[in-house]
Backbone:
């Protein structure tokens, strides 16, 4: 966040100077006279408009997205999860299917996860981006609720997922819950459409032979 703030200030100053210079050059005004400064309000309005465009749409588009290099995670992600440890009967918990719907703009990100028995919503999210160390991670806290009677109760948890690919194609990492359970899940991007339920995701669940086509066809 500190690095992004420094870049934002630098870009704002540079853009403002360029616009102001272009205006006084077009109007043929002497830059050292008071007349040149009467257009500062116009410069501010233009810069605000540029940033509003960028924060709403431009951060996802080439070449504008390279200003901050923030990964675009919007869409539906599906894959599998495995919980460490044993269930109440002392049996290994089998691998399950999971779907994540991610809604994101430049400033905010929200994660909803769906399994056959639970739905979870994030309430504290962070994108950890450190180009100098090659780190890209999505970290979030979530609250999980059951969707079927007879399943395990509600719980809170956290997930730390590494981001792979440019544009992002895979997320994988660990999760923990306040029920003293933990595990690992690995998911892949499949669509920019954001599903709203596990059953909706299952209808579009790719076959194994389709994964390679999906992973090589994503465009931002």
Residues:
């Amino acid at each position: 966040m500190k690095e992004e703030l420094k870049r934002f200030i630098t870009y704002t100053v540079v853009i403002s100077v360029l616009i102001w210079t272009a205006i006084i050059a077009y109007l043929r005004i002497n830059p050292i006279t008071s007349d040149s400064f009467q257009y500062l309000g116009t410069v501010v309005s233009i810069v605000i408009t540029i940033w509003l465009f960028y924060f709403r749409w431009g951060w996802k588009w080439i070449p504008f997205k390279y200003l901050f290099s923030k990964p675009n995670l919007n869409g539906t992600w599906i894959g599998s999860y495995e919980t460490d440890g044993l269930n109440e009967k002392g049996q290994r918990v089998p691998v399950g299917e999971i779907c994540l719907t991610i809604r994101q703009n430049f400033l905010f990100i929200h994660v909803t996860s769906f399994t056959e028995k639970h739905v979870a919503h994030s309430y504290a999210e962070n994108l950890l981006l450190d180009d100098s160390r090659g780190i890209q991670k999505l970290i979030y806290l979530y609250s999980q609720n059951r969707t079927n009677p007879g399943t395990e109760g509600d719980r809170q948890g956290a997930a730390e997922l590494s981001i792979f690919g440019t544009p992002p194609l895979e997320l994988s990492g660990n999760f923990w819950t306040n029920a003293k359970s933990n595990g690992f899940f690995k998911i892949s991007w499949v669509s920019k459409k954001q599903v709203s339920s596990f059953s909706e995701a299952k209808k579009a669940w790719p076959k194994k032979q389709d994964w390679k086509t999906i992973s090589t066809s994503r465009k931002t």
